[in-house]
Design goal:
Helices cover 40% and strands 13% of the residues. Strand 3, helix 4 and strand 4 form a beta-alpha-beta unit.
């Protein structure tokens, strides 16, 4: 059991539980044993912060999990597991509402299932205040299994699974031994240990708090200037900027997001888009990202969004005929030029 737009890996078994993959054209589709709940998106999801109180949203989304558990049990079946990223990256940089995982884990465990936290993209101090993103939901929110991967090797291929003694022992008793030629090899383990040491010695988790707050605040300040920015959300060095055509309707601005990504590349800044409509700018920079890097990114994004704004009423072009927008080149601003790092005064003046 998991939620829409989720992604957990490219193995066949993982694609089966990755709506982000199996729902694509040519995908395998949803299997009968897989159960799908709504993504806990409080901006443009089923339950929105504009319609409900903040403290209600977690329960509203978690109740969908309870309904699935109840329905399965009514058929004399059980729940094996619930898996979710602690914060959804491929789903559009979604921050689950408070109390969501607390209630979800309670419902799943009552139905006999185990709770799995996918920390591959959001773990290892990226969120700043905690080592693991699931900790943001409360000290009492503890998964049964945690999966982690790429960040622990800083580019070197290595992954790990952390679980309870009880679950490890139950696996041992099955007699099905797990074996992997490269599993536990000393080179990969040495690299992972070096990464852990660096995170601690260079205080990169604490660094993510300071730089992350500057990044989030700067993005929100930019949103006051550009109406195409519908929402800014995040924690630490995990931030999403959702682009929309209309702040009231929250219509996704997919084509504009695509243009922004392309222009950013021209300025030697690599970004990607994500979310079900590919309209969310995904910010997940290296942990050594600095406040100066933030200023450079913001000034560059400001310049590119000006280009969008200056282009002969882009919103009307897209609204009238979205398909034509892809063929309509946005003329770079007359100010567009190879980007140079703006000083602090220029940045303030720009915003």
């Amino acid at each position: 059991m998991y939620f829409s737009s989720a992604y957990h890996g490219h193995l066949t078994s993982l694609i089966e539980i990755s709506h982000y993959k199996f729902s694509l054209p040519g995908g395998i589709g949803q299997k009968e044993h897989v159960h799908l709940a709504s993504c806990p998106d409080t901006y443009r999801g089923k339950f929105r912060s504009t319609d409900y109180k903040k403290e209600e949203l977690g329960n509203l989304y978690a109740n969908e999990i309870k309904e699935i558990c109840d329905k399965v049990q009514e058929q004399d079946k059980g729940i094996c597991a619930y898996i979710a990223e602690s914060m959804l990256s491929c789903g559009g940089q979604i921050i689950p509402p408070p109390n969501y995982f607390r209630e979800v884990y309670r419902h799943v465990r009552y139905a006999g299932g185990v709770c799995i936290a996918d920390e591959v993209q959001v773990g290892f101090g990226r969120v700043g205040k905690h080592w693991w993103a699931f900790q943001m939901q409360g000290d009492d929110v503890i998964p049964d299994i945690v999966t982690m991967g790429k960040p622990m090797g800083n580019g070197h291929p290595i992954a790990a699974v952390i679980t309870t003694k009880a679950i490890a022992e139950s696996f041992r008793r099955t007699g099905v031994e797990y074996f992997n030629t490269y599993g536990g090899n000393p080179v990969s383990c040495a690299i992972a240990n070096a990464v852990f040491d660096t995170i601690v010695k260079e205080k990169l988790r604490e660094h993510a708090i300071v730089v992350g707050e500057h990044l989030l605040d700067s993005c929100k300040l930019l949103a006051r200037k550009h109406k195409v920015i519908g929402d800014v959300r995040g924690a630490g060095l995990f931030v999403g900027i959702e682009l929309v055509l209309d702040r009231e309707e929250k219509t996704p601005a997919k084509e504009i997001a695509s243009y922004v990504i392309s222009r950013m590349k021209d300025e030697h800044i690599l970004l990607s888009t994500d979310g079900p409509d590919c309209n969310v700018l995904k910010l997940k920079p290296p942990m050594v990202f600095s406040e100066e890097n933030v200023d450079q990114f913001i000034a560059c994004l400001d310049l590119i969004l000006k280009e969008v704004k200056e282009n002969q009423d882009v919103s009307n072009v897209i609204t009238t005929n979205p398909k034509n927008f892809i063929q309509t080149e946005i003329a770079p601003s007359k100010d567009s030029r190879p980007f140079k790092k703006a000083n602090k005064e220029e940045k303030i003046k720009s915003i």
